[in-house]
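Appendix B, Record 12. Input sequence as logged:
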Amino acid sequence: MILADKEETHSGTSETDSRRELVGRVVASAPFSKTERLSSLLIYVCDVALDGRADELSEQNVGEAVFGRARDYDSANDGIVRAQVSRLRQRLDLYFDGEGAAEPIRIVIPRGGYVPFFEPRLPKEVIVPAPAPMPDPVISFAEPLRIEKRRIGSAGLMWGLIVVLAITVLALLLKMAIAPREAQPVHSAGHPFWSLMFGADQPTTLVLADSNLVVWQGLMKRDVGLAEYLSGDYRTTIPPTATPLQIEALGIARGRYTSMIDVEMVQYFSQISQSERSKLGVRYTRDLRPNDLKMGNIILSGAPEANPWVQLFQRDMNFVYSYDRANRKTSVLNRSPKGNEPRQWDSFQTDKQHQVYGVVAYLPNLSGNGNVLILEGTTIAGTESALDFVSDDAQLLPFLKQIRQPDGKIPHFEVLLGTNNMSGSAVKNSILASRIKN
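Logged structural output:
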Protein backbone atom coordinates (compact mmCIF):
# COMPACT_ATOMS: atom_id res chain seq x y z
CA MET A 1 0.00 0.00 0.00
CA ILE A 2 1.11 3.56 -0.60
CA LEU A 3 0.73 6.06 2.21
CA ALA A 4 0.44 9.68 1.14
CA ASP A 5 3.24 11.07 3.32
CA LYS A 6 5.28 14.27 3.12
CA GLU A 7 8.10 12.83 1.06
CA GLU A 8 5.78 11.49 -1.62
CA THR A 9 3.74 14.68 -1.71
CA HIS A 10 6.71 16.97 -2.35
CA SER A 11 8.67 14.69 -4.66
CA GLY A 12 5.79 13.51 -6.81
CA THR A 13 3.30 16.31 -7.44
CA SER A 14 1.80 14.65 -10.50
CA GLU A 15 1.26 11.42 -8.56
CA THR A 16 -0.44 13.34 -5.77
CA ASP A 17 -2.60 15.20 -8.29
CA SER A 18 -3.73 11.90 -9.81
CA ARG A 19 -4.80 10.74 -6.37
CA ARG A 20 -6.77 13.91 -5.79
CA GLU A 21 -8.44 13.36 -9.17
CA LEU A 22 -9.29 9.82 -8.05
CA VAL A 23 -10.93 11.20 -4.90
CA GLY A 24 -12.95 13.55 -7.12
CA ARG A 25 -14.17 10.67 -9.28
CA VAL A 26 -15.15 8.67 -6.21
CA VAL A 27 -17.28 11.41 -4.62
CA ALA A 28 -18.93 12.11 -7.99
CA SER A 29 -19.94 8.45 -8.42
CA ALA A 30 -23.34 6.88 -7.81
CA PRO A 31 -22.45 5.26 -4.44
CA PHE A 32 -21.58 8.72 -3.08
CA SER A 33 -24.18 10.82 -4.94
CA LYS A 34 -26.58 11.05 -1.99
CA THR A 35 -24.10 10.82 0.87
CA GLU A 36 -22.77 14.34 1.35
CA ARG A 37 -21.47 13.52 4.82
CA LEU A 38 -19.43 10.52 3.62
CA SER A 39 -18.13 12.54 0.66
CA SER A 40 -16.97 15.29 3.02
CA LEU A 41 -15.33 12.70 5.27
CA LEU A 42 -13.44 11.09 2.36
CA ILE A 43 -12.29 14.44 0.98
CA TYR A 44 -11.09 15.56 4.40
CA VAL A 45 -9.03 12.47 5.30
CA CYS A 46 -7.51 12.29 1.81
CA ASP A 47 -6.65 16.00 1.72
CA VAL A 48 -5.00 15.84 5.14
CA ALA A 49 -3.01 12.72 4.20
CA LEU A 50 -1.95 14.07 0.79
CA ASP A 51 -0.82 17.29 2.47
CA GLY A 52 1.60 15.23 4.55
CA ARG A 53 -0.35 15.60 7.80
CA ALA A 54 -1.52 12.02 8.31
CA ASP A 55 -0.49 12.22 11.96
CA GLU A 56 -3.40 14.64 12.49
CA LEU A 57 -6.02 12.05 11.49
CA SER A 58 -7.18 11.09 14.96
CA GLU A 59 -10.77 10.30 15.89
CA GLN A 60 -10.94 13.53 17.91
CA ASN A 61 -9.73 15.72 15.04
CA VAL A 62 -12.01 14.09 12.47
CA GLY A 63 -15.02 14.50 14.75
CA GLU A 64 -14.28 18.18 15.19
CA ALA A 65 -13.41 18.99 11.56
CA VAL A 66 -16.05 16.94 9.72
CA PHE A 67 -18.92 16.46 12.15
CA GLY A 68 -18.81 19.74 14.07
CA ARG A 69 -18.04 18.21 17.44
CA ALA A 70 -16.48 20.33 20.19
CA ARG A 71 -12.70 20.13 20.53
CA ASP A 72 -12.99 18.30 23.85
CA TYR A 73 -15.96 16.04 23.03
CA ASP A 74 -16.04 12.54 24.56
CA SER A 75 -15.26 10.20 21.66
CA ALA A 76 -15.59 7.14 23.92
CA ASN A 77 -19.34 7.76 24.24
CA ASP A 78 -19.88 9.50 20.89
CA GLY A 79 -19.00 6.97 18.18
CA ILE A 80 -20.03 9.04 15.16
CA VAL A 81 -16.56 8.97 13.60
CA ARG A 82 -16.15 5.19 13.97
CA ALA A 83 -19.64 4.57 12.61
CA GLN A 84 -19.23 6.88 9.61
CA VAL A 85 -15.76 5.59 8.73
CA SER A 86 -17.19 2.05 8.79
CA ARG A 87 -19.89 3.18 6.33
CA LEU A 88 -17.24 4.94 4.24
CA ARG A 89 -15.28 1.70 3.87
CA GLN A 90 -18.43 -0.02 2.61
CA ARG A 91 -19.12 2.74 0.06
CA LEU A 92 -15.53 2.61 -1.17
CA ASP A 93 -15.91 -1.14 -1.72
CA LEU A 94 -19.10 -0.53 -3.70
CA TYR A 95 -17.35 1.99 -5.92
CA PHE A 96 -14.15 0.05 -6.59
CA ASP A 97 -16.00 -3.24 -7.13
CA GLY A 98 -18.51 -1.60 -9.48
CA GLU A 99 -18.31 1.78 -11.18
CA GLY A 100 -14.61 2.15 -10.38
CA ALA A 101 -13.54 -1.39 -11.21
CA ALA A 102 -11.13 -0.11 -13.88
CA GLU A 103 -9.33 2.32 -11.55
CA PRO A 104 -5.60 1.48 -11.34
CA ILE A 105 -5.47 2.70 -7.72
CA ARG A 106 -7.83 1.81 -4.89
CA ILE A 107 -8.44 3.92 -1.77
CA VAL A 108 -8.31 1.83 1.40
CA ILE A 109 -8.84 2.91 5.02
CA PRO A 110 -7.63 0.01 7.21
CA ARG A 111 -9.68 -0.95 10.25
CA GLY A 112 -8.75 0.80 13.45
CA GLY A 113 -7.39 3.95 11.81
CA TYR A 114 -8.42 6.93 9.72
CA VAL A 115 -5.41 7.31 7.41
CA PRO A 116 -6.25 6.50 3.75
CA PHE A 117 -3.90 4.40 1.64
CA PHE A 118 -3.71 4.41 -2.14
CA GLU A 119 -3.23 0.79 -3.14
CA PRO A 120 -2.12 -0.28 -6.65
CA ARG A 121 -4.52 -2.84 -8.07
CA LEU A 122 -3.46 -6.12 -9.62
CA PRO A 123 -3.07 -6.17 -13.41
CA LYS A 124 -6.15 -7.42 -15.22
CA GLU A 125 -4.27 -10.19 -16.94
CA VAL A 126 -3.80 -12.15 -13.69
CA ILE A 127 -7.48 -11.94 -12.75
CA VAL A 128 -9.30 -14.70 -14.62
CA PRO A 129 -12.60 -16.41 -13.84
CA ALA A 130 -12.20 -19.72 -12.04
CA PRO A 131 -14.17 -22.74 -13.28
CA ALA A 132 -16.02 -23.04 -9.93
CA PRO A 133 -16.61 -20.85 -6.85
CA MET A 134 -13.44 -20.70 -4.79
CA PRO A 135 -12.34 -18.94 -1.60
CA ASP A 136 -10.84 -15.44 -1.57
CA PRO A 137 -7.20 -14.93 -2.65
CA VAL A 138 -4.95 -16.53 -0.08
CA ILE A 139 -1.54 -16.04 1.45
CA SER A 140 0.76 -18.75 2.76
CA PHE A 141 1.96 -18.77 6.38
CA ALA A 142 4.57 -20.75 8.33
CA GLU A 143 6.38 -22.18 5.29
CA PRO A 144 8.16 -20.60 2.29
CA LEU A 145 6.01 -20.27 -0.80
CA ARG A 146 6.54 -23.28 -3.03
CA ILE A 147 5.42 -23.54 -6.63
CA GLU A 148 4.86 -27.11 -7.72
CA LYS A 149 4.42 -28.25 -11.28
CA ARG A 150 0.86 -29.34 -12.01
CA ARG A 151 -0.19 -31.50 -14.89
CA ILE A 152 -3.92 -31.05 -14.41
CA GLY A 153 -4.96 -27.97 -16.33
CA SER A 154 -7.72 -25.94 -14.68
CA ALA A 155 -6.86 -26.59 -11.05
CA GLY A 156 -3.13 -26.14 -11.68
CA LEU A 157 -3.70 -22.81 -13.38
CA MET A 158 -5.97 -21.71 -10.56
CA TRP A 159 -3.37 -22.41 -7.87
CA GLY A 160 -0.63 -20.85 -9.94
CA LEU A 161 -2.65 -17.65 -9.97
CA ILE A 162 -3.23 -17.92 -6.23
CA VAL A 163 0.52 -18.10 -5.66
CA VAL A 164 0.98 -14.93 -7.76
CA LEU A 165 -1.71 -13.21 -5.71
CA ALA A 166 -0.18 -14.48 -2.48
CA ILE A 167 3.24 -13.03 -3.33
CA THR A 168 1.65 -9.71 -4.26
CA VAL A 169 -0.33 -9.59 -1.03
CA LEU A 170 2.76 -10.51 0.98
CA ALA A 171 4.64 -7.58 -0.55
CA LEU A 172 1.78 -5.25 0.34
CA LEU A 173 1.72 -6.58 3.89
CA LEU A 174 5.42 -5.95 4.35
CA LYS A 175 4.94 -2.40 3.16
CA MET A 176 1.98 -1.98 5.52
CA ALA A 177 4.11 -3.15 8.42
CA ILE A 178 6.79 -0.55 7.68
CA ALA A 179 4.99 2.46 6.24
CA PRO A 180 1.91 3.36 8.27
CA ARG A 181 3.72 4.60 11.38
CA GLU A 182 1.52 7.67 11.42
CA ALA A 183 -1.69 5.65 11.79
CA GLN A 184 -3.51 6.13 15.09
CA PRO A 185 -3.82 3.34 17.69
CA VAL A 186 -6.84 1.10 17.27
CA HIS A 187 -8.02 1.69 20.84
CA SER A 188 -6.66 3.29 23.96
CA ALA A 189 -5.29 0.91 26.59
CA GLY A 190 -7.82 -0.54 29.01
CA HIS A 191 -10.59 -1.16 26.48
CA PRO A 192 -13.49 -2.91 28.30
CA PHE A 193 -13.34 -5.93 26.00
CA TRP A 194 -9.85 -6.09 24.55
CA SER A 195 -8.24 -5.76 27.97
CA LEU A 196 -9.85 -9.16 28.69
CA MET A 197 -8.40 -10.77 25.54
CA PHE A 198 -4.99 -9.09 25.66
CA GLY A 199 -3.24 -8.97 29.02
CA ALA A 200 0.35 -8.29 30.00
CA ASP A 201 0.36 -11.39 32.21
CA GLN A 202 -0.48 -13.94 29.50
CA PRO A 203 -0.07 -14.19 25.72
CA THR A 204 -2.83 -14.19 23.12
CA THR A 205 -2.72 -16.56 20.13
CA LEU A 206 -4.49 -15.93 16.82
CA VAL A 207 -5.25 -19.20 15.00
CA LEU A 208 -5.65 -18.69 11.26
CA ALA A 209 -8.17 -20.57 9.13
CA ASP A 210 -7.12 -23.36 6.75
CA SER A 211 -8.36 -22.32 3.29
CA ASN A 212 -6.95 -25.49 1.74
CA LEU A 213 -9.24 -27.55 3.97
CA VAL A 214 -12.27 -25.57 2.77
CA VAL A 215 -11.38 -26.23 -0.88
CA TRP A 216 -10.72 -29.93 -0.20
CA GLN A 217 -14.08 -30.44 1.51
CA GLY A 218 -15.85 -28.63 -1.32
CA LEU A 219 -14.25 -30.83 -3.97
CA MET A 220 -14.62 -34.08 -2.02
CA LYS A 221 -18.14 -33.16 -0.84
CA ARG A 222 -17.62 -34.30 2.73
CA ASP A 223 -16.64 -32.87 6.11
CA VAL A 224 -13.41 -33.42 8.03
CA GLY A 225 -13.65 -33.85 11.80
CA LEU A 226 -10.99 -32.67 14.23
CA ALA A 227 -9.54 -36.16 14.81
CA GLU A 228 -9.11 -36.78 11.07
CA TYR A 229 -7.71 -33.28 10.64
CA LEU A 230 -5.05 -33.88 13.28
CA SER A 231 -4.11 -37.28 11.86
CA GLY A 232 -3.76 -35.82 8.36
CA ASP A 233 -5.19 -38.96 6.74
CA TYR A 234 -7.45 -36.93 4.46
CA ARG A 235 -4.32 -35.40 2.90
CA THR A 236 -2.75 -38.77 2.03
CA THR A 237 -5.61 -41.13 1.15
CA ILE A 238 -7.10 -41.23 -2.36
CA PRO A 239 -10.55 -42.86 -2.61
CA PRO A 240 -10.82 -45.57 -5.32
CA THR A 241 -13.64 -43.65 -7.00
CA ALA A 242 -11.84 -40.29 -6.97
CA THR A 243 -12.18 -38.10 -10.05
CA PRO A 244 -9.13 -36.33 -11.56
CA LEU A 245 -10.20 -33.10 -9.87
CA GLN A 246 -10.53 -34.87 -6.53
CA ILE A 247 -7.05 -36.32 -6.96
CA GLU A 248 -5.84 -32.78 -7.55
CA ALA A 249 -7.59 -31.84 -4.30
CA LEU A 250 -5.08 -34.04 -2.48
CA GLY A 251 -2.28 -31.71 -3.53
CA ILE A 252 -4.35 -28.69 -2.58
CA ALA A 253 -4.99 -30.12 0.90
CA ARG A 254 -1.26 -30.27 1.58
CA GLY A 255 -0.82 -26.54 1.08
CA ARG A 256 -0.79 -23.96 3.85
CA TYR A 257 -2.91 -20.99 2.88
CA THR A 258 -5.31 -18.71 4.68
CA SER A 259 -7.84 -16.10 3.54
CA MET A 260 -7.54 -12.35 3.10
CA ILE A 261 -9.85 -11.77 6.08
CA ASP A 262 -7.23 -13.54 8.21
CA VAL A 263 -4.59 -11.17 6.87
CA GLU A 264 -6.79 -8.32 8.10
CA MET A 265 -7.07 -10.03 11.48
CA VAL A 266 -3.29 -10.27 11.81
CA GLN A 267 -2.97 -6.56 11.14
CA TYR A 268 -5.84 -5.53 13.42
CA PHE A 269 -5.01 -7.74 16.39
CA SER A 270 -1.32 -6.81 16.16
CA GLN A 271 -2.36 -3.20 16.70
CA ILE A 272 -4.65 -4.19 19.57
CA SER A 273 -1.86 -6.12 21.30
CA GLN A 274 0.42 -3.10 21.03
CA SER A 275 -2.16 -0.74 22.52
CA GLU A 276 -2.80 -3.20 25.37
CA ARG A 277 0.96 -3.83 25.83
CA SER A 278 0.44 -7.53 25.31
CA LYS A 279 1.99 -10.24 23.13
CA LEU A 280 0.29 -11.75 20.08
CA GLY A 281 1.31 -15.07 18.60
CA VAL A 282 0.04 -16.24 15.19
CA ARG A 283 -0.40 -19.96 14.50
CA TYR A 284 -1.67 -21.88 11.52
CA THR A 285 -4.64 -24.15 12.33
CA ARG A 286 -2.74 -27.31 11.42
CA ASP A 287 0.10 -26.50 13.84
CA LEU A 288 -2.10 -26.25 16.95
CA ARG A 289 -2.52 -28.99 19.55
CA PRO A 290 -5.23 -29.46 22.23
CA ASN A 291 -2.97 -28.32 25.07
CA ASP A 292 -2.51 -24.99 23.31
CA LEU A 293 -6.19 -24.25 23.97
CA LYS A 294 -5.68 -24.68 27.71
CA MET A 295 -3.28 -21.77 28.10
CA GLY A 296 -3.74 -18.03 27.68
CA ASN A 297 -6.24 -16.33 25.40
CA ILE A 298 -7.11 -17.71 21.96
CA ILE A 299 -8.71 -16.15 18.87
CA LEU A 300 -10.08 -18.72 16.41
CA SER A 301 -10.74 -17.51 12.88
CA GLY A 302 -13.34 -19.30 10.78
CA ALA A 303 -16.16 -21.81 11.17
CA PRO A 304 -15.46 -25.55 11.70
CA GLU A 305 -15.14 -26.03 7.94
CA ALA A 306 -12.02 -23.83 7.98
CA ASN A 307 -10.94 -24.19 11.61
CA PRO A 308 -11.80 -27.61 13.10
CA TRP A 309 -10.69 -26.44 16.57
CA VAL A 310 -14.03 -24.65 16.87
CA GLN A 311 -15.59 -28.11 17.28
CA LEU A 312 -14.11 -28.37 20.79
CA PHE A 313 -16.25 -25.45 21.95
CA GLN A 314 -19.49 -26.23 20.12
CA ARG A 315 -20.89 -28.38 22.93
CA ASP A 316 -21.21 -25.20 25.03
CA MET A 317 -22.49 -23.00 22.19
CA ASN A 318 -26.05 -22.24 21.17
CA PHE A 319 -25.30 -21.09 17.61
CA VAL A 320 -23.47 -23.82 15.69
CA TYR A 321 -22.84 -24.49 12.01
CA SER A 322 -24.23 -27.27 9.81
CA TYR A 323 -23.26 -28.01 6.19
CA ASP A 324 -25.55 -29.44 3.50
CA ARG A 325 -23.17 -29.81 0.55
CA ALA A 326 -25.73 -31.49 -1.72
CA ASN A 327 -27.95 -28.39 -1.59
CA ARG A 328 -25.03 -25.92 -1.30
CA LYS A 329 -26.41 -24.69 2.00
CA THR A 330 -24.73 -23.64 5.24
CA SER A 331 -26.96 -23.23 8.29
CA VAL A 332 -26.55 -21.72 11.73
CA LEU A 333 -28.49 -23.97 14.09
CA ASN A 334 -30.31 -22.46 17.06
CA ARG A 335 -30.13 -25.17 19.72
CA SER A 336 -32.45 -23.43 22.18
CA PRO A 337 -34.72 -20.95 20.39
CA LYS A 338 -36.20 -18.10 22.42
CA GLY A 339 -39.47 -16.36 21.65
CA ASN A 340 -40.03 -16.15 17.90
CA GLU A 341 -36.49 -17.13 16.96
CA PRO A 342 -36.23 -19.71 14.14
CA ARG A 343 -34.57 -23.06 14.73
CA GLN A 344 -31.96 -22.25 12.11
CA TRP A 345 -30.79 -19.57 9.71
CA ASP A 346 -29.93 -20.83 6.20
CA SER A 347 -27.42 -19.37 3.76
CA PHE A 348 -27.54 -20.70 0.18
CA GLN A 349 -24.75 -20.21 -2.34
CA THR A 350 -27.46 -19.60 -4.96
CA ASP A 351 -29.26 -16.94 -2.88
CA LYS A 352 -29.69 -13.81 -5.02
CA GLN A 353 -30.08 -11.72 -1.86
CA HIS A 354 -26.60 -12.85 -0.76
CA GLN A 355 -27.74 -13.28 2.85
CA VAL A 356 -24.92 -14.58 5.05
CA TYR A 357 -24.40 -14.97 8.79
CA GLY A 358 -21.60 -14.48 11.26
CA VAL A 359 -21.13 -15.64 14.84
CA VAL A 360 -19.04 -14.02 17.57
CA ALA A 361 -18.51 -16.33 20.55
CA TYR A 362 -16.62 -15.19 23.66
CA LEU A 363 -16.02 -18.26 25.84
CA PRO A 364 -13.63 -19.61 28.50
CA ASN A 365 -10.65 -21.63 27.27
CA LEU A 366 -10.44 -25.36 27.92
CA SER A 367 -8.87 -24.87 31.35
CA GLY A 368 -10.97 -21.89 32.39
CA ASN A 369 -7.88 -19.75 33.02
CA GLY A 370 -8.23 -17.65 29.88
CA ASN A 371 -10.68 -16.67 27.16
CA VAL A 372 -11.47 -17.80 23.62
CA LEU A 373 -12.87 -15.52 20.93
CA ILE A 374 -14.39 -17.30 17.92
CA LEU A 375 -15.06 -15.28 14.75
CA GLU A 376 -16.87 -17.42 12.19
CA GLY A 377 -19.25 -17.08 9.26
CA THR A 378 -21.23 -19.02 6.69
CA THR A 379 -18.87 -17.47 4.10
CA ILE A 380 -15.79 -15.25 4.08
CA ALA A 381 -18.18 -12.28 4.20
CA GLY A 382 -19.85 -13.80 7.26
CA THR A 383 -16.52 -14.07 9.06
CA GLU A 384 -15.80 -10.49 8.02
CA SER A 385 -19.08 -9.41 9.63
CA ALA A 386 -17.92 -10.99 12.90
CA LEU A 387 -14.62 -9.09 12.68
CA ASP A 388 -16.50 -5.90 11.82
CA PHE A 389 -18.63 -6.29 14.94
CA VAL A 390 -15.75 -6.65 17.40
CA SER A 391 -13.55 -4.05 15.68
CA ASP A 392 -16.22 -1.33 15.53
CA ASP A 393 -16.86 0.23 18.95
CA ALA A 394 -20.04 1.80 17.59
CA GLN A 395 -21.44 -1.75 17.46
CA LEU A 396 -19.49 -3.48 20.22
CA LEU A 397 -19.68 -1.01 23.12
CA PRO A 398 -23.50 -0.64 23.18
CA PHE A 399 -23.82 -4.44 23.26
CA LEU A 400 -21.27 -4.73 26.09
CA LYS A 401 -23.09 -2.01 28.02
CA GLN A 402 -26.32 -3.96 27.65
CA ILE A 403 -24.90 -7.24 29.00
CA ARG A 404 -22.52 -5.84 31.62
CA GLN A 405 -23.13 -7.38 35.05
CA PRO A 406 -23.90 -5.29 38.17
CA ASP A 407 -20.30 -5.70 39.36
CA GLY A 408 -19.05 -4.27 36.05
CA LYS A 409 -17.76 -7.54 34.62
CA ILE A 410 -18.33 -8.60 31.00
CA PRO A 411 -19.83 -12.12 30.88
CA HIS A 412 -19.10 -14.66 28.18
CA PHE A 413 -21.53 -14.40 25.28
CA GLU A 414 -22.56 -15.39 21.77
CA VAL A 415 -23.86 -13.05 19.06
CA LEU A 416 -25.47 -14.07 15.77
CA LEU A 417 -25.13 -11.47 13.00
CA GLY A 418 -26.92 -11.15 9.69
CA THR A 419 -25.43 -9.32 6.71
CA ASN A 420 -25.36 -9.24 2.91
CA ASN A 421 -22.46 -10.43 0.79
CA MET A 422 -21.47 -7.70 -1.68
CA SER A 423 -18.56 -8.79 -3.90
CA GLY A 424 -17.17 -10.97 -1.13
CA SER A 425 -17.46 -8.34 1.62
CA ALA A 426 -19.97 -7.84 4.41
CA VAL A 427 -22.12 -4.73 3.85
CA LYS A 428 -23.98 -4.02 7.09
CA ASN A 429 -24.39 -6.00 10.30
CA SER A 430 -27.53 -6.55 12.33
CA ILE A 431 -27.78 -8.55 15.56
CA LEU A 432 -30.30 -11.35 15.03
CA ALA A 433 -29.91 -13.10 18.38
CA SER A 434 -27.55 -13.32 21.34
CA ARG A 435 -26.90 -15.44 24.41
CA ILE A 436 -25.23 -14.64 27.72
CA LYS A 437 -23.16 -17.47 29.20
CA ASN A 438 -23.45 -17.95 32.98
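The radius of gyration is 22 Å.
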